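Worked example 3 (structure in, sequence out).
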């Protein structure tokens, strides 16, 4: 309620001196107001789908006249994300190959020949927990 009262008092003070302003000054201020309003950017609604649609429509709607730095930054961010995903995939692939290589090396350096691992009875013997120690 206090803010409304202050706004009312300010409006009254501004209106009190309005009669003393000349007609030419009023016309100049009105022209300046109209010029400022015509230069004000109007908000536009842009359809976007998860952010990517917004980038495309902004680039298309701006055309060659507007700034395209934000679109460039978004494209650069997408490229960086894809590069990071590719790098991660390659690193995990290298880790998998290293693990398989370690298992293969252990099998090859073992005392048992590889044919033993193809024998089903030997595999059953390995799984049997009741074997004597």
């Amino acid at each position: 309620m206090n803010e409304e009262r202050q706004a009312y008092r300010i409006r009254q003070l501004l209106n009190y001196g309005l009669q003393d302003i000349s007609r030419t000054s009023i016309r100049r201020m009105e022209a300046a107001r109209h010029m400022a309003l015509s230069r004000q950017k109007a908000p536009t609604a842009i359809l976007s789908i998860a952010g990517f649609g917004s980038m495309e429509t902004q680039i298309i709607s701006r055309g060659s006249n507007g700034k395209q730095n934000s679109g460039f930054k978004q494209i650069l961010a997408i490229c960086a994300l894809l590069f990071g995903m590719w790098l991660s995939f390659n690193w995990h692939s290298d880790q998998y190959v290293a693990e398989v290589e370690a298992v293969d090396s252990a099998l090859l350096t073992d005392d048992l020949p590889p044919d033993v691992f193809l024998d089903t009875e030997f595999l059953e013997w390995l799984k049997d927990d009741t074997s004597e120690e």
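Notes: The first helix runs from residue 2 to 16. The mean pLDDT is 75.
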